[in-house]
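User: Just a sanity check before I run the rest of the batch. Below are the structure tokens for the first item. I only need the designed sequence back.
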């Protein structure tokens, strides 16, 4: 792929454009000699797209790699018990999770369904290696017809990595509720920013660079609000607060450990949630 002409990334806009930022951050991390994440496909993909990544500011951040590692860990755990399950990646963007998991010793029987908007699916089809275990649907995650394309007989694990915060609250909760209704026995993982962070982003007061403004984030929840979903949405059997995997640096890891475990910090920390449907 590296010898082919680069593909123009400027067709991506709005929320879809954030996928280029997260890809660049992850690829930058993967290039380090002390990389947190083994993600050669992210490096290849970032190098295959013609785009001015400098508009996003510095890519020397750990957050996107740590986020992907958290999703990988829970997906891997589910596939350990359900090796032929289908993983549904909602608004997958330019994630390279399938390739990391396929190399991670969980076997090669699990199937993958990407659900994303047409420009993103077109880019993925051009640049990522095909597999007879990967299917792609060019549609919004809020068009629930994708659920009809999921064979849940061997299990289903749904990821919404970096998605729900960009939806309206009723859309996000509606999506969770429909997944719970349609996929008993399955699981769903999502992440959300704390409300203060979402407010600053939405007002344009927090930017990765002067030349780039992250799209508004209308949806956020506190850990206690997320925990209460088990009482509010039929079909949710359990809610798990997922701890973040270690990053690089003792001070960072001490801070993450403390914030995850002291309720005092619940209003100010991000949420990583695993739902069990039953």
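Assistant: Here's the designed sequence for the first item:
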């Amino acid at each position: 792929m590296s010898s082919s002409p680069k593909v123009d990334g400027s067709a991506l806009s709005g929320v879809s454009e954030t996928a280029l930022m997260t890809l660049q951050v992850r690829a930058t991390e993967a290039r380090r000699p002390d990389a947190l994440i083994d993600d050669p496909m992210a490096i290849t993909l970032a190098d295959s797209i013609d785009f001015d990544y400098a508009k996003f500011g510095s890519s020397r951040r750990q957050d996107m790699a740590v986020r992907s590692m958290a999703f990988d860990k829970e997906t891997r755990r589910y596939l350990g018990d359900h090796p032929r399950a289908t993983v549904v990646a909602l608004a997958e963007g330019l994630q390279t999770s399938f390739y990391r998991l396929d190399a991670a010793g969980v076997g090669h029987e699990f199937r993958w369904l990407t659900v994303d908007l047409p420009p993103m699916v077109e880019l993925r089809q051009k640049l990522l290696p095909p597999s007879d275990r990967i299917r792609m649907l060019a549609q919004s995650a809020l068009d629930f017809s994708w659920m009809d394309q999921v064979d849940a007989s061997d299990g289903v694990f749904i990821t919404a990595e970096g998605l729900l915060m960009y939806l309206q609250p009723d859309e996000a909760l509606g999506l969770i509720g429909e997944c719970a209704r349609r996929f008993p026995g399955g699981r769903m993982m999502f992440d959300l920013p704390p409300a203060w962070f979402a407010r600053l982003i939405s007002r344009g007061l927090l930017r990765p660079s002067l030349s780039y403004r992250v799209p508004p984030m209308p949806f956020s929840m506190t850990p206690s609000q997320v925990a209460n979903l088990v009482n509010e949405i039929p079909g949710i059997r359990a809610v798990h607060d997922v701890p973040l995997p270690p990053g690089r640096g003792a001070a960072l890891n001490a801070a993450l450990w403390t914030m995850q475990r002291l309720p005092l910090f619940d209003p100010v920390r991000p949420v990583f949630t695993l739902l069990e449907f039953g």
